[in-house]
Amino acid sequence: MPRSKRRQHPMAVSKLRKGAHCVEFALVLPIMLLLFLSGIEFARMNLLRHLAENASYEAARQVIVPGAKVEEAEARANAILSVMGVQGARLTVSPDPVLETTGTVSVKVTFPAKNNLWMVPMFSANLNFQSETTLLTERATLQQVRAINAITPGSDPAPDPVPPSYPGPPSDPFGL
């Protein structure tokens, strides 16, 4: 009858592989760190991209109301950008100044990634975060109609605003 092989005790196997764990850890650690830190950097890039969008939108909302000044939009955008410590931001409001006859307002926020990323700005030296928001102003109806027609190519010139005729409430809305 053949003799069965005896299994070695687990401690005997680990004595044969005494330094293998350290070598495996030394090989895997740099790759894991690279993946972890690049994930943090990409998350920060995404956060900065959304921050540029939010700053341009909020600045545009600040300046579309009647009587608003471009300086108020700049202050609003800079307040939002300062939350994340953004450096080197440029804000462009068009038209400047915003008048009562202005139909649309555009706000463009741009800042370099090189000054605002944490770990490896050498890979993003020429990258800029940029966002532009265009909103209709809260002005008289005639200016809004002209602004909408200016945005839509091939549309008719702005008609004189005529209030729609309202037939009034139905006599019996539920058929009772």
Plain-language structure description:
The protein has 176 residues and is an alpha+beta fold. The protein has one domain (23-151): Pantoate--beta-alanine Ligase, Chain: A,domain 2. The chain contains four helices and three strands; from the N terminus they run αααβββα. The protein has helices at residues 10-16, 20-63, 70-83, 141-151, and strands at residues 90-94, 104-112, 128-136. A three-stranded antiparallel beta sheet has the order 1-2-3, with helices on both faces. Helix 2 (20-63) runs antiparallel to helix 3. The protein is elongated. The termini are far apart. The model has no long low-confidence stretch (mean pLDDT 78).
Secondary structure blueprint with pairings:
Elements: H1 10-16, H2 20-63, H3 70-83, E1 90-94, E2 104-112, E3 128-136, H4 141-151
Antiparallel strand pairs: 1-2, 2-3
Give a brief rundown of this model.
This protein is of the alpha+beta class and 176 residues long. The chain is built from 4 helices and 3 strands, in the order H-H-H-E-E-E-H.
Count of DSSP helices?
4
CATH class: Alpha Beta
Instruction: Count structural domains.
Output: 1
Shape: elongated
Strand content of the residues, in percent? 5-15%
Compute the separation of the termini in Å: 99 Å
Q: Which oligomeric state applies?
A: single chain
Number of strands: 3
CATH architecture: 2-Layer Sandwich
**Widest β-sheet, arrangement of strands:** 1-2-3
Mean pLDDT: 78
What is the structural class? alpha+beta
Rg over CA atoms? 31 Å
The helix/strand order is HHHEEEH
Low-confidence parts: none
